[in-house]
């Protein structure tokens, strides 16, 4: 069991990156605030955490990213205007952002790797287990992932990862796991190793690491002792591998729901289209227009 014997209630979202793939849009606007229809990417992620029972969210930010915290503040002026207009739907949507969770922030002075970003959360998180949610992907709210991960971590007290199944030809784009069966439940495996971006011939499986982790508080001591690895950065994977070698149990939930990956321009555009098409207020007209547009492009 972890230090408290309870499910984690805190989450860390590393969000200090420069997002060079989205320049010049991200020169002044954090990538995490790019809108997917009418909600920024970061809000989808905080909503995912809140729906799983997370009540405390720490944003690890960098220079020029204070607007991410502002997004979750109250806006009495906007709320008053919407109230005057009688726009109850938008008023509820604006208020909801400040009611999702308690939002905190700390700064990562330099972008020294994911492990380093997680490490700066040590004083906020303390000794308890916590979730890490990367800031450029989220899952379908109708197919949640995090509750199963939190439950599993509370049972094992170790590290819990999330995997998706990828085509063998795509393994060189991901961290890939070697695993063995687990008796802990359906879609749960025991992790025996992680390989970063192996070729299809060298990949131990087709299970790729998703940007969701539930970690014991002991990870902070290991991160502090982890030397820079790939790219000269302090890698979270290296710290987890060390804990695995030291006997910490590592399990994973294999996720078979839909994942939205907004970390690259193509994935971001796909997420916008997919979520717009699912909206009851926008979907029918948008899908109709999209079908006509695609047809015109093919012609």
UniProtKB/TrEMBL annotation:
Nucleotidyltransferase found in the keyword field: yes
GO molecular function: UTP:glucose-1-phosphate uridylyltransferase activity
GO biological process: UDP-alpha-D-glucose metabolic process
Pfam entry (one): NTP_transferase
Domain of life: Bacteria
Domain annotation Nucleotidyl transferase: ranges: 10-276
SUPFAM superfamilies referenced in this protein's UniProt entry, alphabetically: Nucleotide-diphospho-sugar transferases
Record carries keyword Glycoprotein: no
Reactions this protein catalyses: alpha-D-glucose 1-phosphate + UTP + H(+) = UDP-alpha-D-glucose + diphosphate
Key words of the record: Nucleotidyltransferase, Transferase
The protein's Enzyme Commission number: 2.7.7.9
Family: Belongs to the UDPGP type 2 family.
Protein name: UTP--glucose-1-phosphate uridylyltransferase
């Amino acid at each position: 069991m972890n230090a408290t014997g309870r499910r984690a209630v805190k989450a860390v979202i590393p969000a200090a990156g420069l997002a060079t793939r989205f320049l010049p849009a991200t020169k002044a606007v954090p990538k995490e605030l790019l809108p997917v229809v009418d909600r920024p990417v970061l809000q989808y992620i905080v909503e995912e955490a809140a729906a799983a029972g997370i009540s405390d969210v720490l944003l690890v930010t960098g220079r020029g990213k204070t607007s991410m915290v502002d997004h979750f503040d109250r806006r009495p002026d906007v709320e008053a205007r919407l109230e005057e207009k009688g726009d109850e739907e938008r008023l509820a949507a604006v208020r909801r952002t400040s009611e999702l969770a308690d939002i905190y922030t700390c700064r990562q002075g330099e972008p020294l790797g994911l492990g380093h970003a997680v490490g700066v959360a040590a004083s906020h998180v303390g000794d308890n287990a916590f979730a890490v949610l990367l800031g450029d992907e989220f899952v379908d709210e109708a197919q949640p992932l995090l509750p199963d991960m939190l439950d599993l971590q509370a049972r094992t007290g170790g590290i819990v990862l999330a995997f998706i199944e990828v085509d063998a030809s795509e393994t060189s784009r991901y961290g890939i796991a070697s695993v063995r069966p687990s008796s802990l439940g359906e879609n749960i495996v025991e992790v025996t190793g992680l390989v970063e971006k192996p070729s299809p011939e060298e990949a131990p499986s087709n299970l790729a690491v998703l940007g969701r982790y539930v970690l014991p508080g002991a990870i902070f001591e290991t991160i502090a002792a982890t030397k820079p690895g790939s790219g000269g950065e302090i890698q979270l994977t290296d710290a987890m591998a060390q804990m695995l070698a030291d006997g910490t149990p590592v399990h994973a939930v294999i996720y078979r729901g839909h994942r939205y990956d907004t970390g690259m321009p193509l994935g971001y555009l796909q997420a916008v289209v997919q979520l717009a098409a699912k909206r009851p207020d926008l979907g029918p007209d948008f899908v109709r227009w999209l079908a006509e547009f695609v047809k015109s492009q093919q012609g």
